[in-house]
């Protein structure tokens, strides 16, 4: 006999899940939905490999789309040794030329070279700040900035924080790290929380 209480409780379905408006036109199994549900906006700390990967994905999507960058994610992981900072930092111009022929990635020579350069800068930050994570989170005193978004149209392309971080990253020597790219990066790694307030995946 089925308990009466169970009859009163609807079976959870994906239709009952509330997500941010920007992901609503993707199916529940789409990679963009999975990225939104499992990664986007979740505070990421103490994992320089993952932070390096996210930064590289942001750089490669510039001028294209995040969806394209995600589709090339596995290829980029293979091309850049799963974002082992030291191995990428030791790559040479010969590697740039080789990767420009790799159909599994976005074949932009400047972005490939920038990734190698950025690995070298991350090495420097690890020596001076302890980690890339410590460097990035120090801008907000290790706090997440929640913009209490109610709809996607409220999300900006850049703000004073991303401008500050981008300016300092440029000073450190990073390439392809402008304020728009860095705003998206800060969203991705959870320094900025731009999940809508009603989203079931809002970390707060």
UniProtKB/TrEMBL annotation:
Chain residues that bind Zn(2+): 20, 36, 195, 199
Pfam families, per the entry: Adenine_glyco (PF03352)
Phylogenetic placement of the source organism: Bacteria, Bacillati, Bacillota, Bacilli, Lactobacillales
Tagged with keyword Metal-binding: yes
Domain of life: Bacteria
UniProt source species: Leuconostoc falkenbergense
GO molecular function annotations of the record: DNA-3-methyladenine glycosylase activity; metal ion binding
UniProt record, GO biological process: base-excision repair
Full protein name: DNA-3-methyladenine glycosylase I
The UniProt record lists the keyword NADP: no
InterPro entries, per the entry: Adenine_glyco, DNA-3mA_glycosylase, DNA_glycosylase
């Amino acid at each position: 006999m089925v308990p009466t209480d169970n009859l009163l409780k609807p079976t959870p379905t994906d239709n009952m899940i509330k997500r941010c408006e920007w992901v609503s036109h993707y199916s529940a199994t789409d990679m963009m939905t999975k990225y939104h549900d499992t990664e986007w906006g979740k505070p990421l700390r103490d994992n320089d490999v993952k932070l390096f990967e996210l930064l590289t994905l942001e750089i490669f999507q510039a001028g294209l789309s995040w969806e394209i960058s995600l589709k090339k994610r596995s290829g980029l992981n293979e091309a850049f040794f799963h974002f082992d900072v030291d191995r990428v930092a030791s790559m040479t111009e010969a590697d740039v030329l080789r990767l420009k022929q790799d159909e599994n990635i976005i074949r932009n020579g400047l972005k490939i070279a920038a990734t190698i350069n950025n690995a070298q800068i991350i090495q420097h930050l690890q020596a001076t700040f302890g980690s890339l994570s410590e460097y990035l989170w120090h801008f907000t005193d290790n706090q997440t900035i929640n913009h209490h978004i109610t709809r996607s149209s409220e999300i900006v392309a850049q703000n004073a924080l991303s401008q500050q971080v981008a300016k300092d990253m440029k000073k450190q020597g990073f390439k392809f790290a402008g304020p728009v790219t860095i705003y998206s990066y800060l969203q991705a790694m959870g320094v900025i929380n731009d999940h809508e307030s009603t989203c079931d995946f809002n970390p707060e």
